[in-house]
Each structure stands twice: as structure tokens, then as C-alpha cells.
Write a structure and sequence with these properties.
Jelly Rolls, 8-stranded antiparallel sheet, about 0% helix, mainly beta, globular
Length: about 110
């Protein structure tokens, strides 16, 4: 029930992005992503419903062809199976929340 940050090892996704899987169960998952400027979240879709919350930085976010710049405090709702991706314009961090849990991240 408790997930302590100092005990969670980040997965290196590439040279400009790391991800920590935070609290989760079969129905819900939170992840903390760390992006360096120029980092890319390639366009993709998945069955999971998702919310992205920007902690810091600037990101150009594409949601099903609608592109917007989002910054600290902004959030994005992503319905199931909708294509999305992002480019990090200024180093930052994002919290991603998924339902159900992303078993492919474990």
C-alpha cells in the first residue's frame, strides 16, 4: 500500500527520458516521468484511459492530431485507444495516471 520514492528504481527509457512506476494495483497506476529537453514520447495508443499532469517544464503534446503546448499545472485527459505523443521543449516532469494498470510497465 505504500510506495516510497527512494526505494523505487527509475527505468531508463532512452537518453532523455526515465520513468518510475509509483503506486499501483490491477485497476490504477501512477508513474513519474523525467524528461530532458528534446525528449520524445513517440505517438502511440493503448487500451488504458490516461491523465497526464505536468509538474514542471514545457511540452508540445499531440492528442489525436490536436497539438498544444502544456506547462506546469496543466493536465491532459486521454481516452482509451486515442493516439497521443509529446516532445519535451524544456526539461520537466510529468505524472501519468492509468486505468487499468499498465502491466507492460512492470
Amino acid at each position: 500500500m505504500f510506495f516510497v520514492d527512494k526505494d523505487i528504481v527509475a527505468s531508463v527509457l532512452d537518453e532523455k527520458c526515465e520513468r518510475k512506476v509509483l503506486a499501483h494495483d490491477d485497476n490504477l497506476m501512477a508513474c513519474h516521468l523525467y524528461f530532458k529537453t528534446g525528449g520524445i514520447g513517440k505517438k502511440h495508443s493503448h487500451e488504458h484511459t490516461q491523465i497526464c499532469y505536468v509538474i514542471s517544464g514545457r511540452f508540445e503534446f499531440d492528442l489525436n492530431g490536436d497539438s498544444r503546448v502544456i506547462t506546469a499545472g496543466d493536465s491532459v485527459y486521454i481516452p482509451s485507444n486515442v493516439e497521443h505523443g509529446l516532445v519535451c521543449l524544456e526539461q520537466g516532469e510529468i505524472i501519468d495516471i492509468f486505468t487499468p494498470e499498465r502491466k507492460d510497465f512492470l
